[in-house]
């Protein structure tokens, strides 16, 4: 798998996109019913739900760093991607067989450890891309992720009342099995280069701009708390509980619609400018919320949030792939995701404390301050300009 713009390269990118669509379809069939399943069906309280979800976030971060490092060391990518999708499928079968919340803990670990696929896959996409199309390729992946999520949530809402929790979980395993089969059968991996020794990545192997970008990303990870806060705010502002998942669909739809255009835009005008747009969109979300919006304006909050995620998640990965040393690409991508993933835990915790102790708008003011700091630091990061076609 090399970085040439050929028909085989396009086939590989499209195969990854199809697998991403299928896996997220399965994952987001579970999303709308997961909290109800944990608290109602297994009898867990909110503290247990928070622990299980928090544990899942930590496992995601660690698994990506581990798989990125190991992928570079072994010079293999495909095996991590295939196993990652299969772990996701097996976990959903495990959920269906669970009868208590204690059973969910090891299964949740298995589920989130399936993210070992992410850093190796992103490294393949980065290797196959040029500076002139890397944003577009990552944009396609994010678009298919979000499209799969949209379809999954819709199916869950339609089917749940007829088939219940366990059948939903079993059904959700099928798309991830299909994703694993597609990757295994259609992706061909080159033999590792002989004589190459991977000694492991050190901080001094990363240049000044990568370290600076990692630093500002920590600020923004602490600022960008979970979207659950927005959903709860919408409910507390008058949206009926049955309509809250519709707002999640609005957010996902606009993340899907924005992913490819923002990726292509970053190929033309640079990653930094599009990241600045992503930060500005998040600022717009916070400012709208603290202005105590009407119902229509609150829908606009989720539109802006979706566009923000479409821009951020697409361009972040492309930017990291270009700032890091090529020989450490999977390690750098995995390590980056680990750092911002671990920061997301205290970010949401701080937001929750501010919400409870000071008021519902306090997390948004706090986020505005941290986002401003991240925006300022970004101005000092030097980027490699995209190649002109």
Strand-helix topology:
Layout: H1 7-30, H2 34-41, H3 46-74, H4 78-97, H5 101-113, H6 118-128, H7 134-186, H8 208-223, H9 228-236, H10 244-269, H11 271-290, H12 295-323, H13 329-357, H14 362-378
Textual characterization of the structure:
With 389 residues, the chain is mainly alpha-helical. The protein has one domain: Up-down Bundle (Growth Hormone, Chain: A). The chain is built from 14 helices and no strands. Helix 6 (118-128) packs across helix 13 (329-357). The radius of gyration is 20 Å and the shape is globular.
Proportion of strand residues:
under 5%
Number of strands: 0
CATH class: Mainly Alpha
| Domain module count | 1
The name CATH uses for the topology is Growth Hormone, Chain: A
Query: How big is the Rg?
Result: 20 Å
Residue share in helix = over 70%
Strand count, sense and barrel status of the largest sheet are:
none
General shape = globular
Helix-and-strand structural type = mainly alpha
- Along the chain, the helix and strand elements come as HHHHHHHHHHHHHH
Q: Tell me the quaternary state.
A: single chain
CATH H-level name... which superfamily? MFS general substrate transporter like domains
* Rounded mean pLDDT score: 84
